[in-house]
Amino acid sequence: MSGSHAEQKTSLRERLAALFRPPEEEGQELRYHGKPMPRLIAYLKPHRKTFFLCLALVLLLTGLELVRPMIIGNAIDRYITGETHEIILAGGREQWDAGERAEERFAGVMQAAGLYLAALILIMLLNRAQTLMLQKMGQSIVYEMRNELFRHVEQLTMRFFDITPVGKTVTRLTNDVEAINEVFANILVKLFRNVVKMIGLAVIMVSMNVRMALYSFILIPVVAALTLLFRMISRRTYRIVRTRLTALNTFLNEHLSGMKIIQVFGREERKKQEFDEKNASLYQASFRELMVFAIFRPGIYLLSVVALMIIMVTGGSSVLRLEITLGTLYVFLQYINSFFEPIQELAEQFTTLQSAISAAEKIFTLLDTEPDIPAEKHPKILPEIRGEIEFDHVWFSYTGKEEDWVLKDVSFRILPGQSVAFVGATGAGKSSILNLIGRYYDIQKGTIRIDGTDIRELSREQIRSAIGQVQQDVFLFTGDIASNIRLRNENITDEEMKQAAREVNAARFIERLPDRYASHVAERGATFSAGQRQLLSFARTLAFNPRILILDEATANIDTETEQWIQEAVAHLMQGRTSIMVAHRLSTIQHCDRIIVMHHGRIRESGTHQELLAQDGIYKKLYQLQLA
Q: Which residues of the chain have pLDDT under 50?
């Protein structure tokens, strides 16, 4: 038992020492170097009328709060103790006359009680109105901020999503934005109320009795020092909590998505240990946050009790010496409680405020992340896209470094309506060419043209709307089959959607389902086979009627029967469209007008299937390997 007790004491000492230790996590994320509060306040601009009305209500509520103790104090002096005093200015003495009748005193007490009740009811009604307005304003700002964040994320390029965990972005849009709500719904107005309340209390106490007021304020320097110390430690602590929460969300998002792999390889226990480590890390950070709060709040409460004792001692002796009335002492006792109450509330507000500021720093860091591909200021809009594609001495690297070239001096031209296939070993640069056509990345050297115009001068929206891309890994959204084909594009009618499904043979399995096109689609289409998901992807592409068709290993995971259906669909899709294919199975591309062989980022061979076989080069070796 003694050893366990010693370990607990050591653990507690370590946790207390950690409050003053610099956080290690701060260097792991980009730090926001601006001032988050002025930027947060800017979101109030559309709601300034509501905000200023709430501030006016704060002034009225604070006035009522200050009046309440005075109603009771006056009632004590006038009706309960039966004392009506007059101050003799010359001698400083008070003379008392208790000659009022009991009935008049009772009536006075009832009148004071009525005033007090009316003040309470009015405070309740005003508080309700203020709370409703603040909560509505806070939710509106959070709604606008979340929309702004999502719009910004949509504008970011693929490079951002390549290097940023999904869980981190999700945390910014959910937990961090929700933390901001408290700033607008509670903190700002409460801070104003508490400041006004403390100033109002100080002014009234000084006006009532200067000496008693000075006794009340004797501990203010200690309170100020404790508050500053708390602010220094808390901001650092809350930033760590937000960082570790992001890490936990990122871990969960990645590993829940990859649960099948975890179970296939029997790594459940190891992943549970990793989760436990991250969960424990968040727990320790949260405990540190709790310890900061647990030290500050009781400290302020202790100071308020000490101040109350000082007033009771000094005020009690003043009452006995007839220097002040009992009602005045009661008012001071109530005011001293009320004076430290806003400071105690600041502890909770600091907790929320620091957490919100840490969240705001992360949100603004994301908002300040510029897309790698700048938006076109005055893009050219082509009357229509015919589908001519030209690469002119293109060099490309994902990192932008010359030693990491993925494409090296690549040049080719695809005429409208022509079908071209790219083949080569893994890492040869085939899929990179497809990504560059849609301008998901920008090249470092050379030029890419569509219909004779540099794609950097064209609108990305027009380029991508003209491209239909079918990938090896099909992504289906939660919803139904119809929404996954038309992607909620209301311009695509039900008949056009069904016609697209029929033409790519997807209707063969859709129409056998109980709910047909209204059948539920689980996350990522987990309830459908790989072939069915691919057919839905073809139907989606055809429904949008693109001018340029891109097939990136579209038949890699398809069984033989489904492949026959898809080959029929591909032949139909390619009619009248510029078609670009990437495939490892050379049997699926023999019909193309031209086949381009990539090797280590360069074009090594180009021609039809028969021409490439006659060259006795890389393509023929690949073909013979597949035949073997």
A: 1-10, 12, 15-28, 83-100
Query: pLDDT tens, 330-350?
Result: 777 777 777 777 776 766 676
Q: Which H helix or E strand runs over 225?
A: helix 220-257
Over residues 436-488, the pLDDT tens digits come to 888 888 888 889 888 888 888 888 888 888 888 877 777 777 778 888 888 77
The per-residue pLDDT for 94 is: 44
CATH among 1.20.1250.20, 3.40.109.10, 3.60.110.10, 1.20.1560.10 for 14-22+34-367: 1.20.1560.10
Find, among 103, 513, 81, the residue nearest to 322 by Cα: 81
| Beta bridge pairs of residue 521 | 479
pLDDT of residue 16: 45
Local structure of 86: helix, strand or coil: strand
Domain boundaries, the chain: 14-22+34-367, 389-627
CATH topology classification for 389-627: Rossmann fold (3.40.50)
pLDDT given at position 6? 46
Q: Give the SS3 label for residue 420.
A: strand
> Which parts of 487-584 fold into alpha helices (H)?
494-503, 507-510, 530-543, 560-574
Residue 376 CA to residue 457 CA, distance in Å, equals: 7
386 φ/ψ sector (left φ>0, alpha ψ -120 to 50, else beta)? alpha
Q: What 3-state DSSP class applies to 596?
A: strand
Q: What is the 3-state secondary structure (H, E, C) of 516-543?
A: HHHCEECHHHCCCCHHHHHHHHHHHHHH
621 class by beta-carbon count within 10 Å (0-12 exposed, 13-18 middle, 19+ buried): exposed
Strands (E), 191-338: none
Task: Compute the distance between CA of residue 428 and CA of residue 600 in angstroms, rounded to an integer.
Answer: 5
How high is the pLDDT of residue 22? Answer: 44
Structural contact between residues 613 and 620, judged by C-beta atoms closer than 8 angstroms: yes
Percent of the chain past pLDDT 90, that is, above it, reads: 0
- Per DSSP, which regions of 317-425 are E strands? 389-396, 407-414, 419-424
DSSP structure string for 441-477? S--SEEEEEETTEEGGGB-HHHHHHTEEEE-SS----
Report the pLDDT value the prediction gives residue 85, as an integer from 0 to 100.
45
The pLDDT value recorded for residue 105 is 72
- Residue 19 DSSP code: T
Residue 1's Cβ-count burial label (10 Å; 0-12, 13-18, 19+) is: exposed
Can you give the pLDDT at residue 49? Answer: 87
Provide the mean pLDDT of the chain.
Answer: 77
Q: Can you give the pLDDT at residue 293?
A: 73
Judge whether 307 and 340 are in contact, CB under 8 Å: yes
Gap between the Cα atoms of 227 and 347, Å rounded: 8
Sign of CA dihedral 387, 465, 481, 253: positive
